[in-house]
């Protein structure tokens, strides 16, 4: 191409593409704003189900949970966030059985890797969506997951974990069994 | 009022001229020189020579000083302090400078009345300057005169180009021109 | 023409008041001080408003809301920022060139304020009105770059230095284009005095009066003015990806505030000068013969006209800033030296021909003649 012609056609193609860019940003200017105004929109706030925030132990209406105090979560935790203490209690048949005393989880140390939930053999613990975990004191970040006076659920009942109310009122359904099973499989493969 | 401003400007010029010469860091000298130039521009402004003021600021403060500073940036270690030795050369040059100062001072004092007359002429309009540059009457036709000086510059550069030895083989452009 | 909201009456009343009650010396001193205070106050207020507007519009371009917590729609946000920057500590760095390091921000801000002074904000609202107005603008705005260069050098920091060198190269290059673009208008209007340029655009703005060459000059002035302020796609002196913050990396507190303020004000000044020179300044839109229409237009005070026109240009500058990616340094200089400057030089000759042959809008259609 003639360099003289090229010079001028270059100017006009450049102008054309610049105007195209300006048009794109002009459209963007009138688009709906995506900013979420957090404290005001608490009621309508949508947090993804996959969001991991606080570890919790679902208790049913009889104040019973599914934790057998096996300690697998504690063993698997990469940075020692979970401490499971248990007592040996003799039951009526005379056999000694391990009973959960305290399931302590440190919010401040957790990396939310979800390994404890995946490896739990009895699906006793889950992460909820309650993201407002900021505290003024570090000691308040250490949570005891089992409620006082709670006890192990009888095996025979084997109820599916019912949807439970989170602390701030948002309904939280525990992750489906299938997902966790898959997670375990993945872990075994790796 | 005018006198006060004049003395302030004069003080600035005097102090920063001395600082520009005595400063150990070359970049600081350049900055002090800039202050001197700006204060000179202020003097022009005081005399209602607005055009000269603007040209002084544009050309010297805005143009030449930036080139100075950028050139200094490109030198080796511009921030280093350097020491000057007082050799006989320096002493003789000081003598010469004082002599020159006396001579120019004498000339200025001798012609001070004429300078004063120029000063009294008031603000100069842009249009007058333009006519003086481009007009064809008496005391006009300044721009072609200036352009002739550019021609002289071109002649000098051409002479240097011709006289210069071609040392490197890479300069094919100048070869092809011949 | 009735002009109920103009400030000219107030200003002349003040002037006669001072003249009649004080000796000429003190009248001059007090009037000078008042003008100085007014200019500096306007400088600060416009800077604050600009910072707020810029943050808001930037946010809108990015589908965000921008500052909206402090006051209604967050309008006190920039005041809060100002207070923050005023009470911040100025960090003293050990191995800087002390004198130049502390002097550099003043160059930038002084240059900016001096240019600010010549802007006609409205009828009679102009601090200085030289016969050489346009040359004065070019002269004082060229001082600022020395501050940038000195800041970069005296910081004793490689990034600052590179940023300053880039800024210097960029500024010197684009100053040429801006100057030539303004000169094109000087050719058209036949004067350099800013007030006369505004007055001559009573019925036809310069950008229409000089049609093709004036429009080219207008676009070139906007591009080069944008580049001079180190913003938008031309902000590579402070390209944060490679140079942290360019020449003001080492500055903190109020000193950084000076650079920040000057940057915003330069944006305003470029827009204001473009308004004054190309878009009729504070002149309301007027049509010869339509007296009723003109009267209605005059009811809107001149400073409102000025700020509205300037605001459009500032919005355009922000629009460009958030549309285009940053240029590489060689492409940047290419744009100036291979495109803008040659086009500009040809353009100024075209303008001379247009003016000499009487092809301007005012010459072709006498209705536009003031």
Brief synopsis:
The complex is a heterotrimer of chains A (190), B (178) and C (370). Chain B is mostly helical and 178 residues long.
Note the total helix count of chain C.
16
- Along the chain, the helix and strand elements of chain A come as HEEHEEHEEEEEH
**Greatest chain-chain contact:** B-C, 29 and 31 residues
Give the topology string of chain C: H per helix, E per strand. Answer: HHHHHHHHHHHHHHHH
Strand content of chain A: 15-25%
Mean of all residue-level pLDDT scores of chain A:
77
What share of the residues of chain A lie within helices? 25-40%
Number of domains of chain C: 1
Rg measurement of chain C, Å = 22 Å
Overall mean pLDDT score of chain C?
A: 83
State the strand order across the main sheet of chain A. 3-4-6
Describe the fold and architecture.
The complex is a heterotrimer of chains A (190), B (178) and C (370). Chain A is α+β, with helices and mostly antiparallel strands and 190 residues long. Helices cover 26% and strands 18% of the residues of chain A. In chain A, a hairpin with a 5-residue loop joins strand 8 (164-165) and strand 9 (171-172). Chain A is elongated, with a radius of gyration of 27 Å. Mean pLDDT of chain B is 77; it is low at 171-178. Chain B has two domains: 1-83 and 112-123, NADH-ubiquinone/plastoquinone oxidoreductase chain 6, subunit NuoJ (Four Helix Bundle (Hemerythrin (Met), subunit A), Up-down Bundle); 125-165. The longest helix of chain B has 25 residues, at 50-74. Chain C has helices at residues 8-21, 24-61, 77-87, 98-117, 133-141, 144-154, 158-189, 194-199, 206-209, 211-228, 240-243, 253-278, 291-299, 302-321, 329-356, 361-364. The model of chain C has no long low-confidence stretch (mean pLDDT 83). Helices cover 69% and strands 0% of the residues of chain C. Chain C has one domain. By secondary structure, chain C is mainly alpha-helical. Chain C has 16 helices and no strands. The longest helix of chain C has 38 residues, at 24-61. The radius of gyration of chain C is 22 Å and the shape is globular. Chains in contact: A-C, B-C. At the B-C interface, helix 2 and helix 3 of B face helix 4, helix 5, helix 6 and helix 7 of C.
């Amino acid at each position: 191409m003639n360099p003289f012609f090229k010079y001028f056609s270059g100017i006009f193609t450049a102008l054309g593409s610049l105007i195209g860019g300006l048009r794109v940003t002009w459209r963007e200017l009138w688009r709906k704003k995506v900013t979420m105004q957090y404290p005001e929109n608490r009621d309508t706030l949508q947090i993804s189900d996959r969001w991991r925030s606080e570890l919790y132990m679902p208790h049913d209406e009889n104040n019973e949970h599914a934790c057998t105090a096996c300690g697998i979560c504690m063993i698997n935790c990469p940075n020692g966030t979970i401490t499971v203490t248990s007592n040996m209690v003799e039951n009526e048949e005379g056999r000694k059985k391990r009973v959960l005393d305290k399931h302590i989880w440190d919010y401040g140390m957790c990396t939310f890797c979800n390994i404890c939930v995946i490896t739990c053999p009895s699906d006793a613990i889950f992460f909820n969506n309650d993201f407002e975990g900021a505290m003024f004191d570090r000691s308040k970040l250490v949570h005891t997951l089992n409620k006082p006076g709670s006890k192990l659920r009888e095996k025979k009942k084997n109820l599916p974990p019912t949807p439970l109310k989170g602390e701030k009122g948002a309904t939280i359904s525990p992750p489906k069994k299938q997902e966790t099973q898959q997670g375990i499989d993945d872990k075994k493969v790796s | 009022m005018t006198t006060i401003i004049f003395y302030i400007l004069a003080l600035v010029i005097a102090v920063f001229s001395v600082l520009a010469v005595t400063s150990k860091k070359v970049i600081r000298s350049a900055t002090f020189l800039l202050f001197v130039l700006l204060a000179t521009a202020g003097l022009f402004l005081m005399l209602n020579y607005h055009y000269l003021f603007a040209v002084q600021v544009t050309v010297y403060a805005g143009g030449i000083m930036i080139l100075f500073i950028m050139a200094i940036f490109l030198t080796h270690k511009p921030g280093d302090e350097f020491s000057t030795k007082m050799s006989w050369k320096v002493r003789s040059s000081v003598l010469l400078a004082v002599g020159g100062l006396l001579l120019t001072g004498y000339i200025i004092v001798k012609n001070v009345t004429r300078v004063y007359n120029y000063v009294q002429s008031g603000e100069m309009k842009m249009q007058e300057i333009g006519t003086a540059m481009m007009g064809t009457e008496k005391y006009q036709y300044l721009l072609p005169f200036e352009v002739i000086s550019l021609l002289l510059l071109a002649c000098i550069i051409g002479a240097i180009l011709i006289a210069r030895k071609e040392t490197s083989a890479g300069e094919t452009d100048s070869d092809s021109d011949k | 023409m009735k002009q109920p909201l103009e400030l000219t009456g107030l200003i002349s009343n003040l002037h006669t008041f001072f003249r009649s009650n004080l000796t000429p010396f003190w009248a001059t001193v007090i009037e000078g001080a008042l003008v100085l205070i007014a200019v500096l106050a306007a400088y600060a207020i416009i800077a604050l408003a600009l910072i707020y507007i810029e943050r808001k519009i930037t946010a809108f371009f990015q589908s965000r809301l921008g500052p909206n917590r402090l006051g209604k729609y967050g309008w006190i946000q920039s005041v809060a920022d100002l207070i923050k920057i005023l009470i911040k500590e100025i960090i003293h760095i050990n191995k800087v060139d002390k004198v130049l390091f502390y002097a550099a921000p003043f160059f930038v801000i002084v240059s900016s304020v001096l240019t600010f002074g010549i802007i006609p904000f409205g009828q009679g609202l102009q601090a200085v009105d030289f016969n050489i107005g346009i040359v004065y603008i070019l002269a004082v705005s060229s001082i600022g770059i020395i501050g940038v260069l000195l800041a970069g050098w005296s910081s004793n920091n490689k990034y600052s230095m590179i940023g300053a060198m880039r800024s210097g190269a960029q500024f010197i290059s684009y100053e040429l284009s801006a100057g030539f673009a303004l000169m094109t208008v000087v050719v058209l209007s036949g004067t350099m005095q800013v007030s006369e340029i505004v007055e001559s655009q009573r019925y036809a703005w310069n950008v229409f009066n000089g049609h093709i060459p004036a429009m080219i000059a207008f676009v070139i002035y906007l591009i080069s003015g944008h580049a001079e302020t180190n913003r938008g796609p031309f902000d590579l002196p402070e390209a944060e990806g490679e140079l942290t913050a360019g020449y003001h990396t080492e500055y903190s507190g109020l000193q950084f505030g000076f650079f920040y303020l000057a940057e915003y004000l330069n944006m305003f000044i470029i827009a204001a000068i473009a308004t004054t020179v190309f878009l009729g300044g504070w002149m309301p839109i007027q049509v010869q013969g339509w007296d009723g229409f003109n009267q209605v237009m005059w009811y809107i005070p001149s400073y409102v006209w000025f700020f509205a026109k300037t605001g459009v240009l500032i919005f355009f500058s922000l629009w460009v800033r958030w549309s285009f990616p940053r240029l590489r340094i060689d492409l940047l200089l290419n744009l100036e030296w291979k495109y803008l400057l040659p086009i500009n030089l040809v353009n100024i000759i075209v303008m001379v021909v247009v003016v000499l042959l009487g092809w301007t809008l005012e010459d072709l259609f006498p209705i536009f003649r003031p």
